[in-house]
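Assess this:
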Amino acid sequence: MHSYHVYFTPKDGVSDRELLTQVHQFMEGQFGSNLAISYRVLRMTNKASCGDLPDFHLIVDYASEADIQCAFQNMKAHYREEPHAPLMKMVSTFRVAFSKDETPEATL
């Protein structure tokens, strides 16, 4: 499993509910043709020693690195369109990272 991680905080004046509704709407379009197999949105409730961590963490899972690359090629062609463009206008802090599942079951 390969995952795309997005950390974000809503802009001033944007409610958490409004932002999360847009995130879920965006994610509905990421299955099937854009190859995502699952996602989770986490609210950071205790940032511990990472005080500058944004408020939310979106994790989008893909079966392979090739699927992530394909999804990003598709996104490059459509990132200025709905529902992605409105979503980007709603966030202030935005950070991304990528990971590969290294649990024994995932690496077999």
